[in-house]
């Protein structure tokens, strides 16, 4: 796999990956790790300089369906060991993720989501407005009914 400096000219490849953001670099890494010998990663600018560097960076397992809950939890596990594999520190901060809820129907939906998350091993929980303010003192509580929090999520 080339270094991506733009100095190399590859004329043959088993796989060409277009885009050097989080998805493209991950695909190229995993292909090379799996034994694909000639992987070329094409990126027009610096690696990670497109939409990847503009993302907020929030990572969570708080979702309302099993597939995304499992994917989020698995992603959090992978990010936690990222410094060992593939070997780059990503400065993960597991400070929690807090959803503020101001409509009764959202409270009901999040209560169902938290129940499913808990069944799948995610330590999320419903919290009162007072606890949400303790977790994040800058919250303006006007109109809030409840919140959902998971301490393992972060950025």
From TrEMBL:
Keyword Oxidoreductase (UniProt): yes
InterPro entries assigned to the protein according to its UniProt record, in alphabetical order: FAD-dep_OxRdtase (IPR006076), FAD/NAD-bd_sf (IPR036188)
GO terms under cellular component: cytoplasm
Coiled coil ranges: none
GO molecular function: oxidoreductase activity
Tree of life domain: Bacteria
Pfam families xref list: DAO
UniProt KW keywords: Oxidoreductase
Residues annotated as domain FAD dependent oxidoreductase: 14-155
Keyword flag Oxidoreductase: yes
PANTHER family (UniProt xref): FAD-DEPENDENT OXIDOREDUCTASE DOMAIN-CONTAINING PROTEIN 1, SARCOSINE DEHYDROGENASE-RELATED
The name this protein goes by in its record: Glycine/D-amino acid oxidase-like deaminating enzyme
Origin species: Actinomadura coerulea
Classification of source organism: Bacteria, Bacillati, Actinomycetota, Actinomycetes, Streptosporangiales
């Amino acid at each position: 796999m080339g270094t991506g400096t733009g100095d190399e000219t590859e004329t043959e490849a088993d796989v060409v990956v277009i885009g050097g953001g989080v998805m493209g670099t991950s695909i190229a890494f995993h292909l090379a790790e799996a034994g694909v010998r000639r992987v070329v990663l094409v990126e027009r600018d610096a690696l990670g300089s497109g939409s990847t560097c503009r993302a907020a960076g929030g990572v969570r397992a708080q979702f309302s369906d099993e597939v995304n809950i499992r994917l989020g939890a698995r992603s959090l596990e992978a990010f936690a060991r990222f410094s060992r594999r593939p070997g780059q520190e990503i400065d993960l901060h597991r400070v929690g993720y807090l959803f503020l809820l101001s409509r009764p129907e959202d409270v009901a939906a999040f209560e169902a989501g938290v129940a499913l998350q808990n069944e799948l091993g995610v330590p999320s929980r419903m919290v009162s407005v007072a606890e949400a303010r303790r977790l994040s003192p800058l919250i303006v509580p006007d109109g809030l009914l409840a919140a959902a929090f998971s301490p393992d999520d972060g950025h």
